[in-house]
């Protein structure tokens, strides 16, 4: 019993233990990822691997302070920007909306906790989360927020080559958290995308939105947007530590938002 409580994984509880150990003030951590191409060197489930790993480390670091509990992951998201490549699976906007609504309805029905932190590993999920969070709060009585790992791992900066997808930062974090899944022998196949300004105009301009694709050779090389060849486990470990520590302030804000 004590070991299960320390794990703070909802799925490892029995049904009677749910009511005994979770409270309305508990915070549920929901990893959300995707199934999409990540170049020749990272697996299709990279975003889900990272979302689960970060959720686990956040729960380990902050679980006692904020009464955190980890939910099972959502493993397919909105990935149409990668659907040119084999293996990519993507829900539609309407399908993703239905998944999120049904999941939140079931969380509100089945669990005492009324705080939900979505640990989002895929940048393409952000738009639908931003659009739906107010509705999910109003319709299901959940106090929720989303932590977007991509933006936390690679803050927008005035660098020559922005890190968007499967580049230095994401590959480094995979080397730190799941090195057995990284095809290091394929690093030699990669070249950096040629034009950082084109990447900024297509993806990062806050004034204009475009339906960009990682298959566009103007902004990507073999589906990669960034410099994966520069990745290292040491750089990844530094990112992991920074993200996990920064999550403490996010959790405090979420708790402060609870009515």
Explain this structure.
This protein has 259 residues and is of the alpha/beta class. The protein has one domain (2-257): Rossmann fold, CATH 3.40.50.10310. Helices cover 45% and strands 8% of the residues. It has nine helices and four strands. The protein has helices at 2-7, 15-21, 46-66, 93-110, 126-140, 149-153, 168-177, 196-204, 233-257; strands at 27-32, 68-70, 115-120, 143-148.
Features:
9 helices; 259 residues; single chain; Rossmann fold; globular; 45% helix
Summarize this structure briefly.
The chain is an alpha/beta fold and 259 residues long. It is 45% helix and 8% strand.
Number of domains: 1
How does the overall form come out from the CA principal axes?
globular
Report the sheet with the most strands, covering strand number, pairing sense and barrel closure.
4 strands, parallel
Structural class: alpha/beta
The helix/strand order is HHEHEHEHEHHHH
CATH superfamily: Creatininase
Integer-rounded radius of gyration: 19 Å
Number of strands: 4
Strand content: 5-15%
Distance between the termini: 31 Å
- Could you name the CATH class? Alpha Beta
Mean pLDDT: 94
Q: The CATH topology, please?
A: Rossmann fold
The appropriate CATH architecture is 3-Layer(aba) Sandwich
Helix percent reads: 40-55%
The stretches of 5 or more residues where confidence is low (pLDDT under 50) are: 1-5
Quickly count the helices.
Answer: 9
Largest sheet: spatial strand order: 2-1-3-4
């Amino acid at each position: 019993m004590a070991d299960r409580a320390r794990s703070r994984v909802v799925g490892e509880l029995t049904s009677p233990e749910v009511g005994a150990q979770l409270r309305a003030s508990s915070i549920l951590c929901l990893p959300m990822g995707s199934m999409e191409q990540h170049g020749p060197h990272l697996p299709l489930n990279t975003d889900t691997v990272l979302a689960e790993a970060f959720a686990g480390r956040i729960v380990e670091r902050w679980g006692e302070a904020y009464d955190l509990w980890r939910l099972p992951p959502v493993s397919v998201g909105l990935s149409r920007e990668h659907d040119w490549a084999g293996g990519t699976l993507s829900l539609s906007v309407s399908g993703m909306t239905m998944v999120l609504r049904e999941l939140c309805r079931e969380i509100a029905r089945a669990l005492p906790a009324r705080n939900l932190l979505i640990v989002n590993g895929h940048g393409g999920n952000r738009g639908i989360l931003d659009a739906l969070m107010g509705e999910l709060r109003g319709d299901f009585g959940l106090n929720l927020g989303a932590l977007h790992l991509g933006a936390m791992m690679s803050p927008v900066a005035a660098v020559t080559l922005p890190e968007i997808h499967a580049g230095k930062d994401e590959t480094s974090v995979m080397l730190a958290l799941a090195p057995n899944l990284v095809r290091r022998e394929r690093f030699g196949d990669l070249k950096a995308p040629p034009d950082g300004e084109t990447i900024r105009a297509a993806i990062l301009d806050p004034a204009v939105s475009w339906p960009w694709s990682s298959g566009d050779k103007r902004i990507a090389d073999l589906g990669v947007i960034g410099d994966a060849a520069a990745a290292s486990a040491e750089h990844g470990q530094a990112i992991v530590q920074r993200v996990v520590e920064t999550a403490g302030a996010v959790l405090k804000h979420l708790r402060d938002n609870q009515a």
